[in-house]
Amino acid sequence: MNKQRRKELANIVTAMENVSTPVDIEELEGIKSDIESVLMDEEFAFESMPEGLQYSMRGEASQEAQDNMNEAIDAIDEFISEYEDYEVDQIHDLEDDEEDIESEIEDKLQDLISEVVMCLETAAE
Asked: What is the rounded distance in angstroms from the CA atom of residue 84 to the CA atom of residue 67?
């Protein structure tokens, strides 16, 4: 991974660390889109490498970075899906304690932030 993509990932990490409740799905989608952009650049760089380099430590590092970015994207997608389910459940089941739901969402958001930050920092190594 080159210096520019590492810098972009560092900026994405900062954005991810600043996500808070109430959750803004558009903000998470934007972060996911930014990760996908860096991922596409990394995939292009890998595919542009001579085959011998693809099988070198440099190529393996690129593939690991791609795997980590994909993991971060998957985590965001999963969170968004679960969050949307919570919103539907909250509308349909008004007997649930709203504070419990908000607390659970906050806990899941903190888990998401930790997972995505770890994946992106590992990808940038």
From this structure: 26
CB crowding 9-31: b at 16 or more within 10 Å, else e: beebbeebeebeeebeeeebeeb
Distance, CA of 34 to CA of 78 (rounded, Å): 17
Task: Provide the token pair at 69.
Answer: 């970015």
Is the pTM of the predicted complex or chain greater than 0.85? yes
Dihedral sign of CA atoms 63, 65, 71, 74 in order: negative
Structure-token pair, residue 102: 């908000």
Residue type, 40: M
Report whether pLDDT(57) > 60: yes
By CB atoms closer than 10 A (0-12, 13-18, 19+), residue 2 is exposed
18-41, pLDDT tens digit by residue? Answer: 999 888 999 999 999 999 999 999
